[in-house]
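The record is kept unedited without comment:

——
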Amino acid sequence: MSRTIHRLTAQFVKSVTKPGRHADGGNLYLYVSSNGGHRWVFMYMREGRQREAGLGSARDVKLADAREKAREMRQLLLNGVDPIDAKATKGEPSIPTFLQFVDTFMDSIETGFRNEKHRHQWRQTLGEAYCASIHSKKIDTVNVEDVLRILQPHWSTKQETASRLRGRLERVFDAAKAKGLRTGENPARWKGNLKELLPARQKLQRGHQPAMPYAEVPAFVSALRTRQATSALALEFLILTACRAGEVYGATWVEFDIEAKLWTIPAGRMKAGRAHRVPLTARALEILTTVNELRISDSSTAYVFPGARLGKPMSNVAFSKLMERMNVEGVVPHGFRSSFRDWCGECTKFPRELAEGCLAHVIGNAVEQAYRRGDALEKRRKVMDAWAQYVGSKT
């Protein structure tokens, strides 16, 4: 008759490499992770759901000691006591809730983000906006059904956001597993998991923002110039430079060489992680002169377009709010990059590569990029001068 308890041997525990759970019997399992980690887990049912109590690394806890811990937990169950709750009562580490773990996890990874916008996006998507339903659940009890309930309402309508959220959830659960707080498959993993349960994303949805037709941009810029607001100057500056809103909001004076008519956005603030040089037109320089006269701080690290709070940049919804006040509907600030690109393609003879370079898009494959050392700054300057002349034609 096969053993029902004490099935494993010390030699097996030391040498096994096959990922998965290996039963010793009596609710005790040796869990081997895909990266080779070995740890003990006590698995049991409580109030109709499975729970897992970590007993430590197999490197630190010998087989005999793990069996003794499992025996003590079985006795607690016989006495009607939940072993995990008992550990918490004794002051031993207990399994955190999803929200508690996310708070700790975010504190540990935030230094790796390129800018404040990314920190905000992570905290927003993992916070009340999308994940409130699992905030109070223990991190080890969140399952595929929970993740699907979060993703499905947004999968078709906000595909890019939902896809990024899924990736962030996957990373959170991987981190929890690495810390010994979860076992088994990651409930947010795509391949072989959610891929079979959610429809494929539609192609070309990413990056297509509602844009103002380029033919309407000159009249809009003319209207902007009648408004006495820093946000109006900043939005016009965004249009003239064909940059992203975050790049304009976060611009500091140290990035500008007025004499050279140049704005160098550091790699850490660029989406592609590469520094981007922006040739400044005459009107862009006029805007900088105007906002410079309004400066409160003499520091070179001060924001070019400061917000209401001292030392803080302009709000990341300032442009949207301004466009609402101007009764401009159905388009977003980011769409002006598309307006610029359409104008380049339909109204000029500038090469495609120059237009893409003005947008800081990576052009060509890895080999082409390796041989393309320059950024065609002076050629791009001609493109931006022509664009500035076009958008200012109604003023």
In short: The two ends are 93 Å apart (CA to CA). The chain is about 45% helix and 10% strand. The beta strands are 20-25, 28-32, 38-46, 49-57, 256-257, 262-265, 276-279. Confidence is low (pLDDT under 50) at residues 203-207, 365-372.
